[in-house]
Design a protein that fits this description.
Layout lengths: L1 H21 L3 E6 L2 E2 L7 E9 L13 E6 L4 E5 L1 E2 L5 E6 L4 E9 L2 E11 L3 E3 L4 H8 L50 E2 L2 E5 L6 H23 L1
Helix pairs in contact: 1-3
């Protein structure tokens, strides 16, 4: 019995350490150009899920990838289907008239607001927070995973490579429309959603930890009674 207790005492801390290691990554979702929308009309929206903002997800079992739309009363979610390009997905969506908050569901990464879609109307995009742009700028060069079909560039703005990113609270996203294409009307919008997954506080990890503590407590009680 003492051997079992010692074994559990060794395994439970390892499980606790493994949870934060998985949750330490971050990703962003970049939307392909989104057209002006009309109510109850089907559109196929493309988007790219990029780990660290620069490359396809490198792990296994990412989980569900989708686009979620919420208007305060209703919530509609449309699953993404992987396309042949790495990290490229598409979701067929159809929305009633209204103003919808848009989220990217990014597998085990936490959802994060993309922006606001007005139907009929256009997608207004939340800007990329400065600290995330800084982390992208600080990354070393990686291989090019794509050819002619590739993700839209992530705007880095005024960040300086080599500067440590601020760890202050993430700025509240502010919806801003994209600039109109040269020589034409603003028929398209590109959206970017950043996700940082630095917290280990996930329900599954908490439950596993509590179960481990309960098991150890029960075993210790039985040993003491003997």
């Amino acid at each position: 019995m003492r051997r079992i207790l010692l074994l559990l005492a060794f395994i439970v801390p390892l499980l606790a350490l493994g949870a934060p290691a998985r949750a330490g990554g971050w990703a962003l979702t970049v939307m392909d150009p989104v057209p002006a929308t009309s109510p109850d009309t089907t559109y196929t929206l493309g988007f790219w899920l990029l780990q660290h903002g620069t490359h396809p997800y490198e792990g296994a079992d990412l989980g569900e990838v989708a686009l979620k739309f919420t208007d305060g009363k209703r919530s509609l979610q449309f699953s993404g289907v992987a396309l042949k390009e790495p990290a490229h997905y598409a979701a067929a969506v159809s929305l009633p008239k209204g103003t919808w908050e848009v989220e990217a569901i990014q597998g085990w990464f936490s959802p994060y607001p993309i922006g606001t879609l007005t139907v009929p109307g256009r997608l207004k995009v939340a800007p990329v927070p400065r600290e995330f742009r800084q982390m992208i700028a600080n990354q070393p060069p990686r291989q090019d995973y794509w050819g002619a079909i590739r993700p839209p560039s992530v705007p880095l703005g005024d960040v300086t490579p080599g500067t440590p990113p601020s760890r202050s609270a993430t700025p509240t996203p502010v919806a801003t429309p994209a600039a109109a294409p040269a020589g034409g009307s603003p028929a398209e919008t590109t959206s970017v959603a950043i996700v940082e997954q630095g917290s280990w506080w996930r329900p599954s990890y908490v439950v596993a930890g509590l179960l481990g503590v309960a098991a150890l407590t029960a075993l210790a009680y039985r040993v003491r009674r003997r």
